[in-house]
Amino acid sequence: DGGITQSPKYLFRKEGQNVTLSCEQNLNHDAMYWYRQDPGQGLRLIYYSQIVNDFQKGDIAEGYSVSREKKESFPLTVTSAQKNPTAFYLCASSIRFNEKLFFGSGTQLSVL
Amino acid sequence: GESVGLHLPTLSVQEGDNSIINCAYSNSASDYFIWYKQESGKGPQFIIDIRSNMDKRQGQRVTVLLNKTVKHLSLQIAATQPGDSAVYFCAENMEYGNKLVFGAGTILRVKS
Q1: Of A103, B94, B98, B105, which is the most exposed, with the fewest CB atoms less than 10 Å away?
Q2: In this structure, are residues B108 and B11 in contact, taking their beta carbons and an 8 Å threshold?
């Protein structure tokens, strides 16, 4: 059953803590993305990767970090430097860059 | 996740009627567009895409129309069903494919 799996579905962060969101895909897609979704706003790009071992900052990369050590995995770390981390985080992948993105089910991150 | 949709425009339609959801895009050079459906607490689901060399594209119960003259995109859903209730948003691919920009979306409510 092919698709994108995000975990956990809900995550709580304490002040000063780093947390990592998981994203795994078995679609054999080269490109992967992380988006942030806030109420009433369009998706905003955090980081993207067009190929394994390479990634680029998106529009709102400050306070976040990623790695792309394997083609199927693109974890996102929300660091303590991100002062407003509460949001719905979406991972996506695609065959061609910026075309026909397929999304995971999302992770809701909240601050305790 | 669950709070997506605050302050978004809402379209209410009767079950069985056709729905038309509109999207104005910003860049006349954008050459690729995508429509997504997002249910509460879930990730966006790809519906249909269209390139700028086309004016119309049809899928199963959906049609996308592109008017490049006025930079307008619409999604038509035939015989709307309760399961179509969701937030619908468009995305445009700008800067020769290097930037995908998402709209905030429209809430579709289907009345039975």
Answers
A1: B98
A2: yes
Strands B106-111 and B10-14: parallel
Q: What is the pLDDT of residues B6-23, one digit of tens each?
A: 578 999 999 999 999 999
List pLDDT tens digits, range A40-78: 899 999 999 999 999 999 999 999 999 999 999 999 999
Q: What does the alpha-carbon distance between residue A25 and residue A19 come to, in Å, rounded to a whole number?
A: 20
Does residue B102 contact residue A43 with C-beta atoms inside 8 Å?
A: yes
For residue B36, list chain A residues with Cβ-Cβ distance below 8 A.
103
User: Chain A: nearest CA to B65, how far in angstroms?
Assistant: 17
Q: Are A19 and A110 in contact (CB under 8 A)?
A: no
User: Cβ(A37)–Cβ(A96) under 8 Å?
Assistant: no
Question: What is the token pair recorded at A61?
Answer: 């990369």
State whether B2 and A108 contact (CB < 8 Å).
Answer: yes
Number of residues that make up chain B: 112
3-state SS, residue B41: coil
Q: Closest Cα of chain A to B21: distance in Å?
A: 16
- Residues from chain A that touch B41, judged by Cβ atoms under 8 A, are 106, 108
Question: Which residues of chain B neighbour A45 with C-beta distances below 8 Å?
Answer: 100
Contact between A103 and B45 using a beta-carbon 8 Å cutoff: yes
Distance CA B107, CA A27 (A): 30
The answer to whether B39 touches B61, Cβ cutoff 8 Å, is no
